[in-house]
Amino acid sequence: MKKILVTDPINEKGIKELEKIADVTVKTDMSQEELIDEIGKYNALVVRSGTKVTREVIEAGKNLEIIARAGVGVDNIDVGAATEKGIMVVNAPESTSITVAEHTMGLMLTLARKIVLADKSVRRGEWNRSKFMGIELKDKVLGIIGLGRIGSQVSLRARAFGMKILAYDPYIDEESAESVGATLVELDELLKKSDIVTIHVPLTKETKHLISRRELKMMKNSAYIINCARGGIIDEEALIEALENNEIAGAALDVFEEEPPSDSPLLEFDNVVLTPHIGASTVEAQRDAAIIVANEIKRIFDGKPPQNVINMPSLDRESFKLLKPYIELCEKMGLMITQLAPDKIKSLNVVYAGEISEFKSLDVLTRTLLQNILNPILTEPVNIVNAHTIAEKRGIVVTESRRPKADNYKSVIQIDVETKSEKFSIEGTYTNKPKIININGYKVDVEPKGNMMIVKYRDLPGTIGAIGTKLGEHDINIAIMQVGREKPGGEAVMVLKVDQKVPEDVLEEVKSLKNVEDAVFMILNN
Ligand code: NAD
């Protein structure tokens, strides 16, 4: 049975899910040394933000397959080290979307109705109703910066309040925006027209101080700004200036450039609402995060496609269904390439042709290919997480391209290989089963399965017979034979499916036959 270690407190329901699939140990007060000592026994590690999953921990995790973060941020995990070791890092990005969206709505209402100030005033014994004149959200313009998981949920909720939604997100299309009731606009237009601006982008080089002096000046004097995303997206110095100069009406912040914002002048403003990074803190979000990662671990242990892997391309169920046949084809083609290559592979050019070329992400196929090329020749396990890193380390240049047409097939994968001493190419397709349809430009039609022999020869009378006879002499039965040739008397390729293994000495005898240039025997399991 697989073993899972949980080192931060996670929801009971998540633990119950994990217990259905593995032997679970919960130890929430481990020192770094204890963790390093013990991690070797486990197949999966489940953490929240408390445990520091350093390179040392990862290197000590000899049996570790998965590091799961029951939540969103993975700042506490050395993802690079995990990738090098082929360990998947999974999280639960969906778990907090509703929770953060609801917090945003809460802050919006708090600003619009001055709820915090009114509360404080009542506690002081005051009863000043006119002081807290608010505004309705209905008919106000909400500007959402970043219309991803959380931004979309905010949009849906704000629509229910009768707000008009503008969104700025250069990475999504108009249809997706419309589907959540938002209209895409440029950032400047959003800032100028919105009564409330709310930020839901990740903190990146591009979004750092996305909202600074220029942007705040563009906003209406009556407008509010909310940040439930990450500190640093709003330039706090500029925000303080804007508040001091009454350039905007107020702000609500759940995140800060420095947390906690102990000495910040922001604490002094009555029209600023502050919460201590609790956007994701609900019972439901924590429960869902634990359940989501438990299911993710189960899927990976069962060999199913993971959905929230940070260090490899994730596939949704639909994409997996469509790509599955080609994943199988790439496994077979990878194994063939590794056995066909006479020496070090220098480069691989993978061409995806036909219908498959329209698929958004094909990286998982290229990774599967690399995994199957590299795994048979390396001691360290190569999987789809570390395949690119290991290929790069071994100096293999991998390029990927697409071609809309695939001649007579629906989809074709063509791989051009360059090794130290030669170049070769194979093409494969999938029609009910994986098929190799071209080797070095010669058409064939063979299922890559079982014992296969590929012979390069000159198409002259007697050569095919001599090869058959030679194998027969050694009691090797030919089940299928296919020849692909350019022209009579020219270069040709023969693919043989044989019932027995072809030993090295027999292969040498075949190679020494007249007109035979090369012969390779390979085993491709079913
Ligand atoms: P997401 O990846 O689903 O959405 C982010 C969106 O931002 C995407 O649609 C992307 O296209 C867009 N985007 C990226 N760069 C942009 C740019 N330069 N300009 C405009 N749009 C851009 O992320 P999410 O799950 O919705 O999370 C949004 C934010 O909320 C993140 O910063 C996340 O860290 C934060 N978050 C905060 C809390 C909290 O406790 N307050 C909890 C969870 C998430």
TrEMBL record:
Molecular-function GO term, any one: phosphoglycerate dehydrogenase activity
Enzyme Commission designation: 1.1.1.95
Domain ACT: 452-526
Principal EC category: oxidoreductase
Pathway(s) annotated for this protein in UniProt: Amino-acid biosynthesis; L-serine biosynthesis; L-serine from 3-phospho-D-glycerate: step 1/3
One Pfam entry name: 2-Hacid_dh_C
GO biological process: L-serine biosynthetic process
Keyword RNA-binding: no
Keyword set includes Disulfide bond: no
Keywords: Amino-acid biosynthesis, NAD, Oxidoreductase, Serine biosynthesis
Catalytic activity: (2R)-3-phosphoglycerate + NAD(+) = 3-phosphooxypyruvate + NADH + H(+)
Signal sequence region: none
Family listed: Belongs to the D-isomer specific 2-hydroxyacid dehydrogenase family.
Record-linked NCBIfam families: PGDH
Protein name stated in the entry: D-3-phosphoglycerate dehydrogenase
